[in-house]
Amino acid sequence: MKIVFVLLDSLNRNAMTPYGSDVVHTPNFTRFQERSITFDNHYVGSLPCMPARRDLHTGRNHFLHRSWGPLEPFDDSFPELLKQNGVYSHLITDHHHYFADGGATYHQRFSSWELVRGQAIDRWKAEVEPDLAALKSTYHPVQHHRTNYMINRQSMTKEEDYCAPQLFKMADEFLQKNHQADSWLLQLECFDPHEPFHAPPRFRKLYPTSYEGPILDWPIYDRVTETPEEIAELRANYSALVTMTDEYFGRLLDVFDAQDLWSDTALILTTDHGFLLGEHDWWAKNRMPVYDEIAHIPLLIYHPDFADAGGTRRKSLTQTADIMPTILDMAGLAIPDDVTGKSLLPLLAKDDERRDSLVFGYFGAAVNVCDGRYSYFHYPVVDAAEHLFEYTLMPTRMTARFSIRELLDATLYSSFSFTKGVPVLKLPPKTDDGGVPVEVQGMPFADQQSQLFDLQTDPGQTTPLDDPEKVMQMCQFIIDNMVKLDAPAEAYSRFGFARPDEVVK
User: Fold this and answer.
1) Mean predicted confidence (pLDDT) in 483-503
2) H/E stretch holding 38
3) How confident is the prediction for the chain on average, in pLDDT?
């Protein structure tokens, strides 16, 4: 079996024609939709970027145990399992987090990998004394702290200098060289349309605005405070970037056409999480409640054995952790016992009710649950650090190691069901000055209010419901999922739940 797995970053499904967009030009996503099976109820698991990738590799959610961090020694990893069983895996990416402290163990699991440098704040170009005044003069003040980005952007003068064109060119080269071979997986991972929303001029021209200020293409992770013109500019820049990824994805489809890869190669298209573009008065992700714009993500799958099902849709609840067992299933490999995700191959044949609910969220914030119709954000009832711990053998975060102070407070925890009998460090979380746990980027979580929404009658999640009976049912779904994930004991008390007897060790 040959598999091409395309992972885009921060792709809001509402910006895609297959999911109803009539604003953003995405003809090639539609072109693929006509061949593939579209999943309408696909959700995230752990958030944001690298936590989502840990779910992708391992086939289980980890946000109840760990914030942003690397793969652990006891973690399953689908490309490593492929490699161990004679299936070659290759990663092409411009995701700079793989090469930072908190992501450094992921790319090593592949048989080989290629990296395109220069995305976002990638520490790429060496300028000891940059002309900061000159750089800042062309950017909006909210972006003046993005020094690395401003330096990197100077090297992107032609379209072929941008990361996405380089990535898809590498993918073309891989397919030209290897399409006649069998038993391989190509993961093509494009950081776009993640911020900064910097697209070549021909794409940007498709979305004119009246904005006349300095470059504004990187929203802050906070409440919307911009003027209407600035809001329109940010949204237009995002749309341009989505259209660019769509066009280059179309060039991948051209390769499939030219080499008749449709006859023997599966193709998966998805994202790690969505993105808020001013909806709910928020930009981006990380701090706010996990609204559907972040949580409800696209997934399209083509498999040659189910080519006749092209253009159909599936309603079953699925999530990020399902991708790993799906890939193993496609390759004819056994799925490890630690995996809690479910292979999607049966759903390609026929829709079914495979689960009654799923949970997702950020470490230290709400635990969120969806049953296909209702979504519920359940925030901690006790937000003190003694009710939250990180469990790891790899004490690193996004771009830094755990501090000596944190490590001095570490204890040893016996093991979880997925650590293969290995004890792990139990570490206190990062906190703000008041001792309240904070997100991986050091920002406190906001709008900490549990809320219930009916996605059928209120898909925009604008009007919370007052329905104690339904809340009770959703809480039971949360508990059921916590048991499946072997959640830490303190998580139950933190969220105000009684710990089920069967999980007491």
Assistant:
1) 89
2) strand 37-39
3) 95
Q: What is the spatial distance between Cα 200 and Cα 210, in angstroms, rounded to a whole number? A: 19
Q: Are strands 2-8 and 265-271 parallel, antiparallel or unpaired?
A: parallel
Alpha carbons 297 and 351: distance in angstroms, whole number: 18
Rounded distance, CA 296 to CA 144, Å? 32
C-alpha distances out from residue 235 to 74, 199, 229, 486, Å: 41, 12, 10, 40
What separation in angstroms does the CA of 375 have from each of 282, 357, 383, 492?
19, 10, 22, 20
Q: Which of 158, 244, 259, 258 has the alpha carbon at shortest distance from 205?
A: 244
CB atoms within 10 A of CB 459: 11
The yes-or-no verdict on residue 505 having pLDDT over 60 is no
**What separation in angstroms does the CA of 415 have from each of 57, 76, 325, 432?**
20, 16, 23, 28
Cis preceding-peptide flag for 208 (omega within 30 of 0): no
Q: CATH number of the domain at 2-349, out of 3.30.413.10, 3.40.720.10, 3.10.180.10, 3.90.1530.10? A: 3.40.720.10
pTM reported for the whole predicted model: 0.96
Q: What is the number of other CB atoms lying within 10 angstroms of the CB of residue 398?
A: 18
User: Residue 440 has which token pair?
Assistant: 């991986």
| Residue labelled with tokens 């997100």 | 439
Q: Which residues contact 114 (CB under 8 A, 6 or more apart)?
A: 90, 91, 92, 93, 170
Taking 60 as the threshold, does the pLDDT of residue 503 lie above it? no
The two three-digit tokens of residue 129, written as one number = 């004394």
Separation between Cα atoms, residue 136 and residue 134, nearest integer Å = 6
Q: CA 254, CA 270: separation in Å to the nearest integer?
A: 19
**Residue partners of 67: CB distance under 8 A and separation at least 6:** 51, 362, 363, 364, 390, 397, 429, 430, 439, 440
116 contact partners, CB below 8 Å, separation of at least 6: 92, 93, 94, 163, 166, 167, 170
Q: Give me the residue spans of the domains in the chain.
A: 2-349, 358-503
Contact 332, 1 (CB under 8 A): yes
CB 297 within 8 A of CB 11: yes
Q: Residue written as tokens 């080519």? A: 307
